Structures are given as structure tokens and as C-alpha cells.
Amino acid sequence: MKPTFVYLAQNTRKDPQWGRDSRSMLEISLDKLYENYNHKFRQSIIIFHEGDFTLEDQRELSKGRPEITFHEIEFKIPDFLDKSKVPDVWVSSAGKAYGEWGLGHRHMCRFYTIQIFDLLSELGYDWVCRFDDDSILHSPIEYDLFEYMESHNLEYGYRVDSQEPYRLTEGFSEALHNYIEKFAVNPTFFDEHVWTPSLKNTLCNYYHQLLALRWPLKKNNLRIAGTYDNWGYFNNFFISKMAFWKSDPVQHFLHFFDQMGASHILHWNDLILQSAAVQIFMDKKKVHKFEDWTYEHATIRHGKLEYGGIWRGKQDEQADAVKAFEQQYGRAIFDADKTY
Ligand SMILES: Nc1nc2c(ncn2[C@@H]2O[C@H](COP(=O)(O)OP(=O)(O)OP(=O)(O)O)[C@@H](O)[C@H]2O)c(=O)[nH]1
Ligand SMILES: [Mg+2]
Fold first, then answer.
1. Do 159 and 43 share a structural domain?
2. How confident is the model over 143-159, as pLDDT tens digits?
3. Which protein residues touch ligand 1 with a CB less than 6 Å away?
């Protein structure tokens, strides 16, 4: 096996999308990954960046840990897209008040949707595990994560389920259905992610549709028959076998959506595309939810928890980090209305 952890990082104290201290967050995330896992397993960690980490920065972050390497990449709008259709800032039809997404963020989405698999495969890696600068492993993992996946015949692992709000994925459900029909794909368990609303849901839909006339975010509560349910994997942590992503059907799917401008024009992010690819092409038995260790991925702005949070691992008896986090910010939230 040739596995690697990956980060995509920016050497800034105030990132353009969220205004966060990415540099310090990266340091904390790496230190926690070592404390709770990598001091024992010493597996490769590649930090992809856009050239903003000098050799001195790289030395400071590596702290003599030789498994950490830096790999420079260049982000640009793909040549095949009509640039006039790529906005500098993407805003949903709900309006600016509900979030704005810059180019950097959308480059990141494309990176994790498609580019990462080409890059790692060229570098000879066969397994990948993603951490973001705001992903924190808070309790020890005593086993080799990659070995665990391989020996249990698993190909995709995640820690937290999540549902994307519909206002951020307009047209995605239709596009998935069109793709499946056009290329006569026989999905593995995608059908489980398509709403078949009960009578109660149907009545609720009328109610939410009415409310949406005044409050557009209420659209997030609709369960329209046949629509993709937008439930997937909170992929700021994921672990996966490269062979799945480089297989012909999955590559065809990823490229088809990439050619449409999924990341840059449509704002269909890496989370929904990755989740849908798994649900359409992977045998469900190969998908694994880790629940034994504590994980944090929290969007905190102006000192308040906006989205995400911390998830206590079943093996984490002390759960000190969970207590401290919940005391300060409260429990993890997945309120689609609040996702910016
Ligand atoms: N080099 C580079 N890295 C980026 C850029 N945008 C995001 N990243 C990194 O990509 C990872 C994911 O970005 P986040 O901003 O956390 O994206 P997100 O998880 O969708 O957003 P939140 O849920 O609010 O955290 C982080 O490690 C970021 O530092 C970018 O423009 N350039
Ligand atoms: Mg994040």
C-alpha cells in the first residue's frame, strides 16, 4: 500500500473566504493528527499549496516530522469553460445575504472533486485521506486507518453525515437523474437518496412552499418526490481507495460534471459530487462510517458556531475536547438554514 494524508492549505492569518487564521489552524490540525495518530504510524502527509509557504514556513510547520511534504499547485479556471460564465463571486438565487463564494473556494471544490485523484495517482499513491486545516482529530486512533479499510474490503470512509442545503445545489438533482438516464447507469444505492415522501411530507411541502414565498430558505425543507435528498458525507475528512476514483465509470462521471463547470459556474461542491459518486457507483458495503474517535470540524464566525461542530467518538471516554467545545459553543449544528 502507498497511502497518504492530504491537506490543501493557505499560508494566511485571514483567508479570503471566511477570514480565518488558516496558518494557525493548520498547525493545530497537524499537531493533533500527530498526537492522536501519526506519531505512531508515521504515514505520508502532503500539504498542497499555491506557493505561499516559503521553505522557512515549511520547516516551521514540519517541526522535523519528515513525513510532511509540501507540493505546490497552480489554480486556474479550466480552459474549457467560458470565462464570461464564471463569476468572481458566486451567489445563490436566495441572494447575497445567504453567502458569497469566491474563486479560491471554488478552485478548492474542483481540487477535491477531480484534481486530487489525478495528482495523487501521478505521484503513485493508492489510498488518500483528507484533512482540512479546520479538521481536528481529538482522540487516539490505535489502528492503521488505511490498513483497516483495506483489510475490511472498504473503499470509502467518513466520520459525519451531512445534508447540503438545496439553495446551494440548484439543478444538481436534475443533472444527476439526466446523467443516470443518458448513460444508462445502474446505480448501486442512489435510489436510497431520492425522496419518496409520505402523505405527511407532501402536506408539509405545501406549507414550506408557502413559507418560501417570504423566507426563501424554507425551500430547504422540501421533500419533493424523486429529488436527490442531498444527504452525503461531510468530506472535510474522508479516506478512500484511489482505484475507485480512477475507475472508468467514476472518471466519466467526474469529467462530465467538470465539463459543465460544476465547481466554478454551478457551485456544485466537492461534498455533493463526491457523495453522489459514491452513492451511484460504489457498493454500499464498501462505505464505512467511523464512529470510534472524536472529530471536530466547526465553522466559527465572530466567536459563534455557525455550522458543524464536534462529534464524540464512542471510544473517547474522557471526551475532554467535547466538553470544552460544547461549553464554549454548544452542540454540533446541521441547520441547513444556517449554512453559509
Ligand atoms: N490554497 C488554497 N487553499 C484553500 C483555498 N480555499 C480553501 N482552501 C483550503 O481548503 C480546505 C477546505 O477549505 P474550507 O474553507 O475549510 O472549506 P469548507 O470546509 O467547505 O468550508 P467550511 O465548512 O466553512 O469550513 C482548507 O484547508 C482551506 O485552507 C484556496 O483558495 N487556496
Ligand atoms: Mg472547512
1. yes
2. 999 999 999 999 999 99
3. 7-10, 17-18, 22, 49-50, 104-105, 107-108, 132-134, 236, 299
